[in-house]
Amino acid sequence: MFMAIANSNTLNLERVLTTLKSPAGITISASIIAAVLGAIDNGFYVIVNAIVTGGMWALVAMGLALVFGVMNVVSFVHGEFFMIGGLTAYFTFTPFSDYLMGNPNPLFEAVLPILAMVASVAAGVVVGILCELIVFRPLRNRTREQWVMNSFVITLGLSTFIVNSSQFILGTDFRGIVSYWNYPTLSFFDVYVSFDRFFVFILAMLILSAFWLFMRSSKFGRAIRAVSQDETGARMVGININGIQTLTLALSSALAALAGACLLFMYPAYPTVGLGPLYNSWFIVILAGMGNVAGAAVGAFIVALLQVLTTVYFGEGWEYTVPAACIILVLIIRPSGIFGSEVRGILNQ
After folding, report:
1. Whether CATH 3.40.190 fits 41-348
2. Which parts of the chain have pLDDT scores under 70?
3. How many CB atoms lie under 10 A from the CB of residue 331?
4. What is the number of other CB atoms lying within 10 angstroms of the CB of residue 100?
């Protein structure tokens, strides 16, 4: 019995050591050390900011990784889904907020931001479904040759169309809010965090957990994973490929739209607001591994930490420079990302 326990402990120790020696383990360990040193030098707010921001970037990046992993779509329209979510939340929240200024209702004031976020999710789902039915499905039915390059060009075209349409219809004005809730600021280890930032972080963690359970335990989640691993095999066992790909794009755009709504107090909605979130999403997806949805959630916090430390030590103008340099190193040293790519046959597409 004691020998069995000893052998089990040895195996567990070997697994831990193997994980720590892996690219992912080394990167995560280095990030933790950097976070601790940054907190010692500049205060605990470095870690708090990285965690809060990372939760939102995880939502956007997981959606991008999902659509890439299942559909092999190199999406450059993902930032516009973020923008649509922000606009939807603004036009849902602002009129009622103005009404409540003259007609106070504490319960409705507390629920209104959540209604705005739900509306943004619905808008994201609708836009994702329309993009699949009008754009990607006809292209997929017509030809599969050079699919990755074709999808890249098409999403660039979609991005330009949505940006210009938004600018033509709504103009170039910034549409944002100061805050969703007028609640007191919270304090964690002498670091002050607004209630809005705290709420959206908790919401992000709940969404990420629910999304993980959905992918692991639900019938549709297992079907999505099956299609991402082997589309031909999934079709042979009766999975509706078109339906799964429509669901995938709807989920992806909904996650991005929700992030846009949640961060409306930080990123006012305007036609090109999605550019920054798009950059961050691709930084995260490349760092984690193309199509690796779970890895993207972890990579989001690493990239957020890099951005926070870069802003602290180099200034806001360098916010994207250091993460971009790290991504270049990742592509040179480990092209499949620190967690490994999960995209089937990407080199043959």
Report:
1. no
2. 1-21, 189, 340-349
3. 13
4. 14
